[in-house]
Write a structure and sequence with these properties.
Helix content is 22%, strand content 55%. It is built from 3 helices and 6 strands. The longest helix is centred in the middle third of the chain and has 14 residues, at 32-45.
Length: 110
């Protein structure tokens, strides 16, 4: 959450595998390459804030699934803040003793 809240795209991309992607509700997939190039600008410009609450973690070998809920807030310039609650699913891979996000899928629940 700290990396997202800071809008530091170089740090955010480092959490993903090279073939990692975000699959956001109602939008096209965002590859790690796109994330590295564009995420910081959006996050900073829209005063993006997020807080995760992990509900379960399941690990099998070098793969893991993390389920969570997140509360987000965005405030585009000249607009009122918009708050959302999402259900989130992270698929992780372990490579060279480091866990990285392979897929991050979320949908809006509130």
């Amino acid at each position: 959450a700290e990396a997202l809240n800071s809008g530091n795209s170089k740090v955010i991309g480092g959490f993903y595998t090279n073939d990692g992607a975000i699959l956001p509700n109602g939008h096209n997939a965002i590859s790690k390459k796109q994330l590295d190039a564009n995420s910081g600008e959006f996050l900073k410009k829209n005063k993006f804030r997020i807080d995760f609450k992990i509900s379960s973690i399941s690990i099998t070998g070098d793969s893991a699934i993390v389920e969570s809920t997140a509360t987000t807030s965005t405030s585009a310039p000249g607009s009122q803040p918009v708050e959302k609650t999402t259900r989130d699913l992270f698929a992780l891979r372990k490579a060279e003793a480091v866990w990285k996000i392979y897929r991050y899928i979320f949908n809006t629940s509130k």
